[in-house]
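A note on notation is needed here, since sequence and fold are reported together in a single record. The reader may check this reading against the record printed directly beneath this paragraph.
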Amino acid sequence: MEWAEVPFEIVVKETDETFPAGLTKDETAIHIARQKMLAVKSAVGKDSIILAADTIVVLEGKIINKPADKEDAIQILSALSGHMHTVITGVVINQGEDEIAFADSTEVLFHKLSREQIEFYIDKYKPYDKAGAYAIQEWIGVVGIKSVRGDFYNVMGLPVSRVVRALQTINFKNED
């Protein structure tokens, strides 16, 4: 958002990232983003404009969570190695009763990664708080990603261009 020259303030609230069974992948990402929005809304007030997002990684139809530990991160990155997966970011923009919610998807193809590359990345970058156990803007993105189809920034966690366009289409209440 900074690069898009949209002023913002970051408010972080611990949020439950579980979701009900039966949701589509897009609905899952939006549900978690909405939970984050509601947590922040209770802290900053209902008239504030709130942008919340959550990113999930999907491989062969299954949501890949954040890794629990090093072994889990190795298993996740080994599964992604040489394969295409989908990164879905759910976005919720809210002020009072007004809300826009959407999901954006990007396909990412990894080169085949060696165990040594995977362990190097995990040991150096500690991606335990990352969906899919990686961040595209780090070393693994530079050496491990073969192609990206869709919004690169979506893989980083926020489809900024789509968010800016959404903000331009709505008339939020003045915060005077």
User: Anything to note?
Assistant: The mean pLDDT is 92.
